[in-house]
Automatic annotation (TrEMBL):
Residues 51-81 form the 4Fe-4S ferredoxin-type domain. Keywords: Electron transport, Iron, Iron-sulfur, Metal-binding, Nitrogen fixation, Transport. One of its GO terms (molecular function) is iron ion binding. This is Ferredoxin-like protein. It comes from the Bacteria. SUPFAM superfamilies: 4Fe-4S ferredoxins (SSF54862). The keyword Iron-sulfur applies. The keyword Electron transport applies. It holds the Pfam family Fer4_ETF_QO. Could be a 3Fe-4S cluster-containing protein. The lineage of its organism: Bacteria, Pseudomonadati, Pseudomonadota, Alphaproteobacteria, Rhodospirillales. To ferredoxins from P.putida and C.tartarivorum, ferredoxin I from A.vinelandii, ferredoxin II from D.desulfuricans. PANTHER family: FERREDOXIN-LIKE, FERREDOXIN-LIKE PROTEIN YDIT.
């Protein structure tokens, strides 16, 4: 089974209006923020045409990669989803 097929087994409970990951306001994305577009395994981050980075955390796997990469810079705010929300791993 391919990784993509395994990931498709996961389910997400989206906490509408309360994203657990937020990017601090910025005019131009730093190199660290731009890196998140490539390293997020769920593809939550995307680059905009005007040089910023946006996030839609609905499919976040709570791997913590972006949290660690931005720990020093504080460019994102990262909290675990409230109880009952977030990813529900099928096999783990
Ligand atoms: Fe992506 Fe992992 Fe950050 Fe979630 S915790 S947004 S899956 S890098």
């Amino acid at each position: 089974m391919k990784v993509e097929e395994k990931l498709y087994q996961n389910r997400y409970m989206v906490d509408e209006g309360r994203p657990h990951v937020r990017i601090q306001p910025h005019d131009t994305a730093s190199p660290t923020l731009r890196t998140l577009v490539d390293v997020c395994p769920a593809g939550c981050y995307s680059a905009t045409d005007d040089g910023r980075v946006e996030i839609i955390p609905d499919g976040c796997m709570e791997c913590g990669t972006c949290r660690i990469l931005c720990e020093a810079s504080g460019e994102i705010e990262w909290n675990y989803p409230r109880g009952g929300y977030g990813i529900l791993f099928k096999f783990g």
